[in-house]
Amino acid sequence: MRTVETVAELRAVVAAWRRDGQRIGFVPTMGNLHAGHFSLVRQARESADRVVASIFVNPSQFGPNEDFDRYPRTPESDAEGLIVAGCDLLFLPTVDEMYPLGVEHRVHMDVPSLTGILCGASRPGHFDGVCSVVSRLFNQVQPDAAVFGQKDYQQLAILRHMARDLAFPIDIQGAPTQREADGLAMSSRNQYLTPEQRALAPLIQQTLHWLAGQVAAGKVIAGSVQAARQRLTDAGFDVDYVEVRRADLAAATDNAMEERVALAAAKLGCTRLIDNLLFVPAL
Ligand code: AMP
User: Fold this and answer.
1) pLDDT tens column, 117-143
2) From ligand 1's centre to the CA of 148, what distance in Å?
3) Is the pLDDT of residue 98 over 90?
4) What average pLDDT does this structure show over 108-122?
5) Are 190 and 182 in contact (CB under 8 A)?
6) What is the mean pLDDT of the chain?
């Protein structure tokens, strides 16, 4: 696996592959890679001849009081894991390389129906930053396919919308959430948890399963959501949101025969955890 730090080097490598008629898969990350990230690389490999991964802790998607400075940065072990997963090229840009005009002078991006809800409501500007970095990475790498985790369900929906609306000729693929043995969704932020918080953390996923079961069985959404929220609060979570929406993230209505998604975000101490579960009504 080759590692490059500039857009010029990246473009030169990818252009050579393209001249050989090879298909390019792409996996953007913020590093501190775990089995979830590596599963995306393996999925990208399935439909591409070459896989590019990027590691960039993107300042524009962190709020002023969020964990940008302390976000774990482990490029050496990340590179080792990427080699094993089958990555061909690692792009490790600097902030200046990614934002040549300065982060504060960047183009802003918004998907009105999707960026103000759920995580977007509590993290203003977060998805602007995500779209900003992913769109520039798409222009730099020019992949045929890009793989994103369904764990960040709203992010995936927004990026699909962005790619379609801005005519990026890229197949946006979702990949299943990889979990620890007790069901906790893998996340670079899990390592912030104390042992007590770590023991509590799988309750998010368990609560989403319970909530999906209630709603799938025809229970009123509002009451079920309230009960799920209470269950997490009683256990010691600082709940940001618990919601049931249609799979496209539009508002869900009771007793509709449609695919839905239960989503939650909650803090344990300073650590914000998110998870989601797709489900269909019981027949
Ligand atoms: P991040 O480094 O957290 O920005 O994540 C980079 C990519 O990995 C995103 O597409 C995430 O959705 C995806 N990802 C993060 N955690 C998981 C997981 N547990 N399972 C699958 N994909 C994941």
Assistant:
1) 999 999 999 999 999 999 999 999 999
2) 7
3) yes
4) 96
5) no
6) 97
Q: Which residue, judged by its Cα, is nearest atom 5 of ligand 1?
A: 29
Candidates 52, 58, 152, 184: which one to mutate for ligand 1, based on the most atoms within 8 Å of Cβ?
152
Q: Quote the ligand 1 centre to 227 CA distance (angstroms).
A: 29
- Ligand 1 mean position, distance from CA 13 (Å): 25
Residues near ligand 1 (Cβ within 6 A): 29-30, 36-37, 39-40, 148-149, 151-152, 175, 177-178, 185-188
Q: Probe ligand 1: pick from 27, 29, 273, max atoms within 8 Å of CB?
A: 29
- Domain 2-175 sits in CATH at 3.40.50.620
Q: What is the whole-number distance in angstroms between the Cα of residue 149 and the centre of ligand 1?
A: 5
281 pLDDT more than 90: no
The pTM (predicted TM-score) of the whole model is 0.98
The residue length of the chain stands at 283
Tell me the DSSP string of 148-216: EETTSHHHHHHHHHHHHHTT---EEEEEPPPB-TTSPBP-GGGGGS-HHHHHHTTHHHHHHHHHHHHHH
| Residue 237, φ and ψ in degrees, nearest 5 | -85, 145
Residues acting as catalytic residues: 37
Alpha helices in the chain (DSSP H): 7-19, 35-47, 75-85, 95-98, 112-115, 119-122, 126-141, 153-165, 195-200, 203-216, 221-235
Instruction: Give dist(CA 26, CA 143) in Å, integer.
Output: 6
Cα–Cα distance for residue pair 122/63, rounded to 1 Å:
10
The third-level CATH classification (topology) of the domain covering 188-278 is: Pantoate--beta-alanine Ligase; Chain: A,domain 2 (3.30.1300)
Domain layout of the chain by residue ranges: 2-175, 188-278
